[in-house]
Amino acid sequence: MSEPRKSRGISVWTAVQIAGIAIWIAGFVLAFYFVQTYNKPSQKSIANNGQLAGLILTGLAYLLIIFSMVKHSPDGRG
Amino acid sequence: MSEVGTREAYARLEPSYLQRYFPTVYTAAVTVFLINFALGVPTTALADLLKYKVAAPTALLFWAQLAILGMGKAIADLVGGYFLDRWHNGRRKVMIVGTVLVVIGSLMIWTTFPDLHQTAVDTIRKAVTGKKHAPLPAFDVAPFLLIMGGQFLNGFGIGMQNGAAMVLLQDYGGATKRGLGASLQKFSLYGGKTTATYLGALLGAVTGLVMFPFLFVGVLAVLAMVLNIVLIKDSREAVLIPAGVERKQPTLADYKPAFTNRSLYSVYFVAFMGKWSDSWFQSISLLYLLLLSYTKVEVGAIAAAFGVLWSVLNAYSGWFSDFFGRRRLALAGTAMGVVTPLLFLWFANSPKNVSLGIALAALWGFGTGVYYGITEVVPGDVARLASRGALIGTFRFFRDTGNVIVPLIFTGILLLPKQQFGSEINLYGLTLWATAIMMLITFGVVWFVMRETFVPSPPAEEAVVAAPRPAAAG
User: If you classify domain B255-455 with CATH, what class do you get?
Assistant: First the structure.
């Protein structure tokens, strides 16, 4: 797969990288928000679902980040 | 001036093979993530089981839970590194053997008590610690030995898998993207571990069965093993051998740079401090912040901020060092490492403020990621291509001793007489002073001892090793 842009601005893969990091961090924030907010024993299943959603988000973000790292990886100045 | 490995890579290799071997590269990263995620899922129930169900003597508890795993990993660093260079298809074989060992190890542990429910362990604990003080059952030796053996194999397996993936990804990084190759492995490793540590408890506890997490580890390890078998193409056979690199058994001479190269022993120190910071957040920060009246969730969020930023930066520091140089990033990261523990100490002595704690832990994680990500590329720069596995394995061995030494140092500090330092809280503060001082020494070592091991553009005269470039190594 070729890199869409090389000269100016940020490329699609750079944007994907940034989105991946944002999703990665959002996954953790989401999980902690649910655990903190729904902390009563009766709300355990809501907290668990929130944590699971966070876990899935971080997993997807990981796959996206390393995919774009390899696909958009300019050569060292060699 | 760059190191021999860098010069040899410029002379023999193409700028990079990462995109050409994308399926292998992606698979190597993903299997590292899978294995480290699986073994990172908290297994706190194991401690209770060993203490109350197996009734293991206290002196053996620490060994069965953690130390034996760390020992297995450190030995695997050396053994795996040797076989990476010695075996035909060594990178591929060591990765596969690593995942097979984790499958066996985790299933050995699971088979000890596959149907035991957490409530059964809770009942024994309550009886033993309750008012009636019921006696512990007799020491059950057979399951204890199975658990010890399983933990050793898990550590040995994960050490082989992680080490082989690091070397393979650096091979495919070619002449100019070794740092990116290392970053792929580092981000996968710490990304998996961090995700599991802070978000994975849910998966471990889903059935209520004490040993279920180990079955979960086994299943993920089988998946990683199948991916390795189907998709991993050995990097030395695919890239290095066609470029004229000899295939030979490592000799003592191959290990010599591990003890004589000034840049290498500088980064042993730098990497050791990465383990130090990680260990501080995984153990000391939890106790310290609880003493300061933070709740468990708040403590978890602060510690996770360190882990999340550290793991993300591991994705970039090695990669960026392909452009800015390894030494510059090591200097920047260690300089941050001097300041951030002291800022954290200031936060700890200030009125309660969770957001500030998260921000400072994230800053600490950022700085640690900046210097830690470059450490494993330096042995790749120093080593000759034919002995890259041996030298990276030796580096990993020295670095991983930090997993054992650092907790001992922290324990030593916390055992100092409280009266002399005012209170227990002050002793925890002392661990932060110790961290800052150690980081200052590390900064000095990088400044005065370490040399740059990679030049982003090769001067013509540096191509000292005459060798034909590979024709079409695809």
Answer: mainly alpha
